UniProtKB/TrEMBL annotation:
Involved in mRNA degradation. Catalyzes the phosphorolysis of single-stranded polyribonucleotides processively in the 3'- to 5'-direction. Its cofactor is Mg(2+). Its EC number is 2.7.7.8. This is Polyribonucleotide nucleotidyltransferase. Residues 629-698 form the S1 motif domain.
Length: 779
């Protein structure tokens, strides 16, 4: 058994080597390769049926990308502890591969093809999505499945002003441009990504840099194919054709199609008119042989496409009568639903999005789990495309790949304007498409921006989006760029691309190119026209809703985030969570604490502003540093014979000594204060040794007339270290002198030094019937 692999290597920059290998794994597939960068390894396989299914009229390509959790030494967190349906992230990567591969196959190739790409070894620093299409294309290259060209994809990001090919995960976190580019060695085929308001020329430079890197990857695949000895591609059955029937259909229907196309009718009227032509055509052709019957629909569809394309190119006339660079009529409303925290209805022609915004707490964050990393997202966008939006009846089976892809483009675009980590809300945006005739994803971006501002989310700028189309003719090189394309124009065009941005730059793009040889000059022109279109839309959005609400609506949860030093986190939480639970219970708020570096983020949520303010004041009191000389509203916590312990700030207590309760001399605390009573106290100082707080109530009271201040006791100074006090006899003098002669009481009863004397402070006359109080200075 020979399991010796065939491999090639190439450098993607900075000495990072990529290895493509075949001949060792999955040998029964039509094509199988592994692609390795660092410790990241992807296995890609391709299998194609030899014959198409009977009556097959479209190309059935299936692409699935999956990350095995074992690749990162992890066990899936699901109930079944195994990989299940593809996650949204895996669906998005599958779409990236599919969109790049599909144009490679011949138009008349109808055999079912399945491409599977699996991450079998994960490297936490390697982004596998940038290698997935390379692996899929390499598997096709070493197979006999008929493809016309070899393709690859790579990521290009701008980091610190420099374009980097396939940066690692740590580097990518600092990027202000992040694009995935798919291309052959001659032509750009696919672009998708996001940026922080980049300019059109920045995007062109990024595409050119990526294309240069892709040429190296394509060359490596060609080398691997040659080493494996692939001589050619398999033969496949050509679909039945009838040129005579095609000519008959053109003669009968061409003028009729042109008249409908030029009528500038509405979507359904136009669709009905085209359907009526089909009925007339079948009657005109009469009975046809069984093998020719499926060709009628195909030839009629191709004729419609040709007539409409030529009309647009030769006459600059579009299906709905607009100019090539004209945006359809716009209508925008906000705050149209009473209960959601934010809402907007955006209508552009026959496309309409009803979008809502919900504000939640950190407990509502979305866990996004992959093999390499698990992250929580505080910004969620869901896109729904019900069948009634196109006047159809279909099964409702949850969001498909199209919904996931369209929602992701809108999410990436709006995310660029979302507030940073200091914004504690979890935000969910839901776009329900109520009508669709071209670019519902761009309607989602516009409606989402309006709804977010209506909810009081502090977006600094509106984000708008527009879908563009391109029609070109190879025979004479003529081309036209269409702004705000219709669904039919999307279907018959050679390129469709969606651009989102603010007044100041591009924040998102998705581009699929269906023809070869698209020059950068054409792309520059298309991007310039797209800028004009999206600026037209964004200005209308500012007129409808110029800025975000200063605060959320009354029925939305209130939120405030407090940044504290890490050392105070324990004080806010309390032993066993006692303090934070008490705050939440007493104020009716929800509090979330997260440690971030050297700080703690305390997020407080409440449906009532009063409750929020009370909780905020409570937390701020816990973390506040008491200031000597400040007056505090305190609460008596307990009564002792020598004074009362009071809480003058949340979590901070001090002793209000009996001598500081009143100017009047008190013999007992009975009847003076009660537990729970509120009293104003002044912080007069802190004990330098123990750090205990010195509080006084009497200094806030008027001084009685004739009151005589007791003289201040002299400071004792630093008594020094006990071990360094020297000869005690020399320092203190003769014993008799120190004790005042023979009277060991020092000239009198020590009762002279109780509170009635000048010494003040502790009670030296405490007997067995009197509780001993702490030693301290009352003054």
């Amino acid at each position: 058994m020979n399991l010796t692999p065939i491999s090639v290597k190439f450098d993607i920059g900075d000495g990072r080597m990529v290895t493509i290998e075949t001949g060792k794994l999955a040998r029964q597939a039509d094509g199988a390769v592994t692609v390795r960068l660092g410790n990241s390894i992807l296995l890609a396989t391709v299998v194609a049926n030899k014959e198409p299914k009977p009556g097959q009229s479209f190309f059935p390509l299936t692409v699935d990308y999956q990350e095995k959790f074992a690749s990162a030494g992890r066990i899936p967190g699901s109930f079944f502890k195994r990989e299940g349906r593809l996650s949204d992230s895996e669906v998005l990567i599958s779409r990236l591969i599919d969109r790049a591969l599909r144009p490679l196959f011949p138009d008349n190739y109808l055999c079912e093809v399945q491409v599977l790409v699996s991450l079998i070894s994960s490297d936490p620093e390697v982004m596998p999505d940038a290698l997935a299409c390379l692996a899929a294309s390499a598997a096709l290259a070493v197979s006999d499945v008929p493809i016309q060209e070899i393709i690859s994809e790579c990521r290009v990001a701008r980091i610190d002003g420099k374009l980097v090919i396939n940066p690692n995960r740590t580097e990518l976190a600092k990027a202000d441009m992040d694009f995935i580019i798919g291309a052959t060695d001659k032509n750009i085929m696919m672009v998708e990504g996001e940026s922080k308001e980049c300019q059109e020329e920045d995007l062109i430079l990024a595409i050119e840099a990526a294309h240069a890197a892709i040429k190296v990857q394509v060359k490596a695949q060609e080398e691997l194919r040659d080493l494996k000895g692939v001589k050619g591609k398999r033969e496949y059955a050509q679909p039945h054709q009838n040129e005579e029937l095609k000519a008959k259909i053109e003669t009968f229907a061409k003028d009729k199609i042109y008249q409908v196309a030029k009528s500038a009718s509405a979507k359904h009227d136009r669709s009905d008119a085209f359907a009526a032509i089909g009925v007339e055509l079948k009657e005109h052709l009469g009975e046809l042989p069984e093998e020719d019957q499926p060709l009628v629909k195909e030839y009629l569809h191709d004729l419609e496409k040709e007539v409409i394309r030529n009309m647009i190119l030769d006459e600059s006339v579009r299906l709905d009568g607009r100019a090539l660079d004209q945006v359809r009529p716009l209508a925008m409303e906000t705050d149209i639903l009473p209960s959601p925290h934010g809402s907007a209805l955006f209508t552009r022609g026959e496309t309409q999005s009803l979008t809502t915004v919900t504000l939640g707490t950190p407990e509502d964050e979305l866990l996004i789990e992959s093999a390499a990393v698990s992250n929580y997202s505080k910004f969620i966008l869901h896109y729904n495309f019900p069948p009634f939006s196109t006047g159809e009846v279909k099964m409702m089976r949850g969001p498909g790949r199209r919904e996931v892809g369209h929602g992701n483009l809108a999410m990436r675009s709006l995310k660029q304007m979302m507030p940073g980590s200091d914004y504690a809300y979890t935000v969910r945006v839901v776009s329900d498409i109520l009508e669709s005739n071209g670019s519902s994803s761009m309607a989602t971006v516009c409606a989402g921006s309006l709804a977010l501002m209506d909810a009081g989310v502090p977006l600094p700028k509106h984000v708008s989006g527009v879908a563009m189309g391109l029609i070109s003719r190879a025979s004479d090189g003529k081309w036209a760029v269409l702004t705000d394309i219709l669904g039919d124009e999307d279907h018959l065009g050679d390129m469709d691309f969606k651009v989102t941005g603010t007044r100041d730059g591009i924040v998102g793009i998705q581009m699929d190119i269906k023809v070869d040889g698209l020059s950068m000059d054409v792309m520059r022109s298309a991007l310039a026209q797209a800028k004009k279109g999206r600026l037209h839309i964004v200005e209308a959005m500012y007129e409808a809703f110029p800025a975000a609400r200063p605060e959320p609506k009354p029925h939305a949860p209130r939120m405030e985030k407090i940044i504290i030093d890490r050392e105070f986190i324990g004080a806010v939480i309390g032993p066993g969570g006692k303090i934070i639970q008490e705050i939440q219970r007493e104020t009716g708020t929800t509090i979330n604490i997260e440690e971030v570096g050297e700080t703690g983020e305390v997020s407080i949520f409440s449906a009532q502003k009063e409750s929020l303010d009370k909780a905020v004041a409570w937390v701020k009191g816990i973390i506040a540093i008491p200031e000597v000389g400040e007056v505090y509203e305190s609460v008596v916590k307990s009564i002792m014979p020598y004074g009362a312990f009071v809480e003058f700030m949340p979590g901070k207590q001090g002793l209000l000594h009996i001598s500081e309760v009143s100017w009047k001399r008190l013999e007992t605390m009975e009847g003076v204060l009660t537990e729970g009573e509120k009293v104003k106290v002044k912080l007069t100082g802190t004990d330098p040794k123990t750090g205990k707080f010195k509080l006084s109530r009497k200094v806030l009271m008027p001084k009685p007339e004739g009151y005589v201040e007791r003289p201040e006791r002299e400071e004792r100074g630093d008594r020094g270290d006990f071990r360094d006090r020297g000869d005690r006899g020399d320092r203190r003098g003769p014993r008799d002198d120190r004790r005042g002669g023979d009277d060991r009481r020092g000239g009198g009863d020590r009762r002279d030094f109780n509170r009635d004397g000048n010494r003040g402070g502790g009670n030296y006359n405490a007997g067995p019937d009197k509780p001993q109080e702490p030693t301290f200075d009352a003054e």
